[in-house]
Automatic annotation (TrEMBL):
Database matches in Pfam families: Mo-co_dimer, Oxidored_molyb
Residue intervals of the Oxidoreductase molybdopterin-binding domain: 115-276
Organism phylogeny: Bacteria, Pseudomonadati, Pseudomonadota, Alphaproteobacteria, Hyphomicrobiales
Stated name of the protein: Sulfite dehydrogenase
The UniProt record lists the keyword Kinase: no
EC number: 1.8.2.1
Cofactor(s) needed for function: Mo-molybdopterin
An annotated Gene Ontology molecular function: heme binding
Cited PROSITE patterns: TAT (PS51318)
Length: 429
């Protein structure tokens, strides 16, 4: 749909009719509302003068053998919160969700979480071993792996610590920081099932333990059932080789489950009959409850959503009128069935419009178009997944799990829109 921003009135009104006919979710667009620049600005040099880019030829092909974003998009980058960790080797940065649209995260913007920095692994020298409770221990080269049938699947990866700083109250001002430990790409990889079948899993086997080739040698225990169901040994993201930050040349994909289990620089998979209780599944990534006990394992990333625009890093820059609200929803239980949004902190809810592919265990994009009257708003979104789970309020989460938790915060987020369009992270639940 093209909303005409400059040009003749006739064109503008035709497109206005289409715009209204297309049916906005929630409907209420006042007839008088105009978009910025709707009226022809007499004498605007950007219209009347020929600009340089319109006059001189640009760079030829091959000026950029590997293309990159426009120089005008230099603000669209991952960002770190320096006080969060003492160094950048075991640290985290965040996906700029407020700058993106659709459901796919561009490779260069996928958030990074490393426990010992980015391993630089030569694919020629990389090996994947399968050992433990198998008939034949095996070692695969990358070339060996290319001879197995592969699959292409779009999945989100969310760190269990995403929104962790927000557990006790609102902290960080921007959805990049509150919700940006999530990315969603199309993986190409070999189903782990084929590799385990090749080695011949013994009947006593119940668990696998993938291990990374980085200096943290990260290890996690994963039930064999999940390994056989939908895990992938992936070597491509969005069609090209994994980025070094994402585990080049090989990473484990564990759909719908917490990011920590998606071992990067995957070098070994041990098959066993019990979980190993490694550091990352005991002292870390477990949910400490009010009574001081911790949940043993919490694997699935529950239903969650966030409004990405408007939001603190994406304020409203006009006084009133036509406004596009958009955001992301996801669930480790499958697809998203519905997203509701409220402009008044939960008194009235309307159903948002889902647009784009609805793929199991991947990000979903929602929109709600409305006419802002310039008054203060309390924006929230609430997602419902195909299993019927409804995203909880933060109070509901704290009632169930107490104040000590960090991980697995899927509570409803509130943005406070001030009449001047400035937006803040607040909590009203
Ligand atoms: N080998 C290895 N795998 C790892 C990690 C790591 O530090 N080393 N970090 C884990 C954590 S905690 C998360 S959230 C995800 C992050 O994946 P990303 O860097 O692609 O966003 O990778 C996981 N896999
Ligand atoms: Mo993580």
């Amino acid at each position: 749909m093209s909303v005409v921003q400059k040009g003749g009135a006739a064109v503008a009104s035709a497109s206005r009719r289409q715009f209204l006919k297309a049916g906005l979710a929630g409907g209420a667009v006042a007839a008088a509302s105009t978009v910025a620049g709707g009226a022809l600005a007499a004498g605007d040099p950007l219209i009347t003068e020929i600009q340089d880019w319109n006059r001189y030829p640009g760079d030829g092909v091959d000026a950029f053998p590997y293309g990159k974003p426009s120089q005008f998009e230099s603000e669209v980058v991952r960002r770190n919160v320096p006080w969060l960790t003492s160094d950048s080797i075991s640290s985290i940065n965040f996906t700029p969700l407020h700058e993106l649209d659709g459901i796919i995260t561009p490779n260069g913007l996928c958030f990074e979480r490393h426990h010992a920095g980015i391993a630089v692994v030569d694919p020629q020298q990389h090996r994947l071993m399968i050992n433990g409770l198998v008939d034949t221990p095996l070692v695969f080269t990358m070339a060996d792996l290319m001879r197995f049938p592969r699959e292409n699947r779009v999945y989100f990866l969310e760190c269990a610590a995403n929104s962790g700083m927000e557990w006790r109250g609102s902290q960080l001002n921007g959805c990049q920081f509150t919700h940006g430990m999530v990315h969603c790409v199309m993986y190409t990889g070999v189903p782990l099932k084929y590799l385990l079948e090749e080695a011949g899993v013994k009947t006593s086997a119940k668990w696998i333990m993938p291990e990374g080739a980085d200096a943290s040698a990260m290890t996690r225990s994963i039930p064999l059932e999940k390994a056989l169901e939908d895990c992938l040994v992936a070597f491509k993201m969005n069609g090209e080789a994994l980025r070094p930050e994402q585990g080049y040349p090989l990473r484990l994909v564990v759909p719908g489950w917490e990011g920590n289990m998606w071992i990067k620089w995957l070098r070994r998979i041990e098959v066993g009959d019990e979980p190993w209780h490694q550091r990352e599944e005991t002292s870390k990534y477990t949910d400490l409850l009010a009574n001081g006990k911790a949940r043993r394992f919490t694997w699935v990333m529950d239903v969650k959503s966030v409004i990405t625009n408007p939001s603190p890093q994406a304020p409203i820059k006009y006084k009133r009128g036509r406004t596009v609200l958009t955001g992301l929803a996801w669930s480790g239980n499958g697809t998203i069935k519905r997203v509701d949004v409220t402009l008044d902190g939960g008194r009235n809810w309307v159903t948002a419009r889902l647009d784009g592919p609805s793929l199991s265990k991947s990000l979903h994009r929602f929109y709600y178009e409305f006419d802002w009257d310039g008054s203060e708003l309390f924006l929230q979104s609430r997602a419902i997944d195909e299993a019927g789970f409804v995203q909880p309020t933060k109070d509901e989460l704290r009632a169930a799990r107490g104040d000590n938790s960090i991980y697995h915060n899927n509570g409803i987020q509130t943005w406070h829109v001030n009449p001047d369009g400035v937006i803040e992270n607040v909590e009203i639940s």
